[in-house]
Amino acid sequence: MSDVDEAVTRAHREGWARVVAALTRRFGDLDIAEESAAEAFATAVERWRADGVPPNPGAWLTTTANRKAIDRIRRENKRDDKHEEARLVHDDDPPEPPGAIDDDRLRLIFTCCHPALAPQTRVALTLRMVGGLTVPEIARAFLVAETAMGQRITRAKTKIKAARIPYRVPSAEDLPARVTGVLTVLFLVFNEGYLATGPDTDPVRHDLTAEAIRLTRLIRALLPEDGEVAGLLALMLLTEARRPARVSADGELVALHEQDRGAWDPALIAEGHRLVRERLAAAAAGVAPGRYQVLAAINAVHTSARDARDTDWSQVLALYDRLVRLDPSPVVALNRAIAVAELDGPEVALAAVERLGDELARYHAYHATRADLLRRLGRSEQSRAAYDTAIELAGNTAETAYLTRRRDQLGWSPPGAATETRPSPPVEGR
C-alpha cells in the first residue's frame, strides 16, 4: 500500500463519521451526506497522489465533501437563484440551544437510532453512517445478502427524510426512553471493532472501539445517574484495556489465558473498576443492575486477576447466572458454559453447549467452544471436525489463524483454553 493509500485509509478510519455528521447537520439529508463523503474520499485518492497529502486531511475532506454536496443539490434542483447558492456556500449552522452537547456525531447516532426504525435497521444504519463500514462488511455481520443490506440502509435513509426525523439529541424528557436503543447499537459498534467480522479488514478496529467509547462518555455526561450507561462504559473500558495484548505480532488472536497482562492498559482498568464499584454500591442499596452492569462486573473479575490461574471462576459463574435471567439468549448460555468448564469440567460444559446446537449452528464460536471442550476430553477426531466448521464460518483473520493453530496442535490441551464468544459481550477467552 502506498503512502497516499495509507493516508486515505487512516483519514477514513478516523474522520468518516465526522465528515458525514457535519454534512448531515448542514444539509439535513443522510443520503447526500453519505454520497458526498464517499465522493470526497474517492477524490482524495486521485488528488493526493498528484498534489501530496494536505497538512489537515480531515479539513480537506470536509471542505471537498461540502462542495460535492452543493454541486449535487444544484444539479438536482437546477437552481438559478444566486441567493440560494450563496446561502449554501456561506450560511453558518444555526446555534444550538443552551446546554446542548456540541457533537455532531452524537446527534447522528440518535438520528440513526430513532425508534421509528426497526432495531436491526438502526444497527445497520449506524454501522454505515457512524462506523463507516461498507455495505458488504455490514451484510457479513448480519449474515444477509449485500443487495438486501443495501436496500435496508437505503430505505432507512428514505424514511428518516420522509418522516422528518430531527437531527438532534433528544430533549431531557425524551432522552431516557431513547437511550436504551442507542446503547444497544453502541455496544454492537464496539463489538465490531473489538473483533471485526470481515476478512478484508483489520481484525481489531481501534477506530470503532474508540468512537463507541467516546460516544458512550458523551451519553454518560447527559445521563450521569443512569446505571446501564455507566455499566456499558465500564464494559468497554475493561475490554479495550486488553487490546494491546489480544493480537500477536504474527496477526493471530491471543487467548485470554495467554495474554501478557503487563501489556493491559492500567488507566482504563482503573477507570472501569471504579465504575463497577459505583454500580455495586448502588446494587447494595437496592438498585438492581442491568445487563451491561453485570457484564462489566464479569470483566472486572477477569481484569482483577494478576494471573489467569487466579481468576475467581465461582464469581464469574454466579454473575453469568444473574445475566442469564436478564438475557436468556443462547450466546450468553454459551459464555456461561465456558465458566462451567473451569469449575465442573469439560464434560459438564459440553453437555450444556450441545443443547445449544440447533440455535447456534451457523455461529462459529459455538463450534470453536465445542472443539476446545472435545479437545480437553481427548476426543481429537470430533474436535478436529468442530474446528474445521469454526474455521469455515469465522471471518476474522486473527481468529481464523488462532483456530487453525489450535486444530493443528490437537493432542496438546492446556487448561483454560476455551474460546470466547461474540457478539455476546467479549468476556471469556480473549
TrEMBL record:
<dbReference type="InterPro" id="IPR036388">
    <property type="entry name" value="WH-like_DNA-bd_sf"/>
</dbReference>
<dbReference type="InterPro" id="IPR011990">
    <property type="entry name" value="TPR-like_helical_dom_sf"/>
</dbReference>
<dbReference type="InterPro" id="IPR013249">
    <property type="entry name" value="RNA_pol_sigma70_r4_t2"/>
</dbReference>
<dbReference type="Pfam" id="PF08281">
    <property type="entry name" value="Sigma70_r4_2"/>
</dbReference>
<feature type="region of interest" description="Disordered">
    <location>
        <begin position="74"/>
        <end position="98"/>
    </location>
</feature>
<dbReference type="InterPro" id="IPR007627">
    <property type="entry name" value="RNA_pol_sigma70_r2"/>
</dbReference>
<dbReference type="GO" id="GO:0003677">
    <property type="term" value="F:DNA binding"/>
</dbReference>
<feature type="compositionally biased region" description="Basic and acidic residues">
    <location>
        <begin position="74"/>
        <end position="92"/>
    </location>
</feature>
<comment type="similarity">
    <text>Belongs to the sigma-70 factor family. ECF subfamily.</text>
</comment>
<keyword id="KW-0805">Transcription regulation</keyword>
<dbReference type="GO" id="GO:0006352">
    <property type="term" value="P:DNA-templated transcription initiation"/>
</dbReference>
<keyword id="KW-0731">Sigma factor</keyword>
<feature type="domain" description="DUF6596">
    <location>
        <begin position="178"/>
        <end position="278"/>
    </location>
</feature>
<dbReference type="InterPro" id="IPR013325">
    <property type="entry name" value="RNA_pol_sigma_r2"/>
</dbReference>
<feature type="domain" description="RNA polymerase sigma-70 region 2">
    <location>
        <begin position="18"/>
        <end position="78"/>
    </location>
</feature>
<dbReference type="GO" id="GO:0016987">
    <property type="term" value="F:sigma factor activity"/>
</dbReference>
<feature type="region of interest" description="Disordered">
    <location>
        <begin position="405"/>
        <end position="430"/>
    </location>
</feature>
<feature type="domain" description="RNA polymerase sigma factor 70 region 4 type 2">
    <location>
        <begin position="109"/>
        <end position="160"/>
    </location>
</feature>
<keyword id="KW-0804">Transcription</keyword>
<dbReference type="Pfam" id="PF20239">
    <property type="entry name" value="DUF6596"/>
</dbReference>
<dbReference type="InterPro" id="IPR013324">
    <property type="entry name" value="RNA_pol_sigma_r3/r4-like"/>
</dbReference>
<dbReference type="InterPro" id="IPR046531">
    <property type="entry name" value="DUF6596"/>
</dbReference>
<dbReference type="Pfam" id="PF04542">
    <property type="entry name" value="Sigma70_r2"/>
</dbReference>
<protein>
    <submittedName>
        <fullName>RNA polymerase sigma-70 factor, ECF subfamily</fullName>
    </submittedName>
</protein>
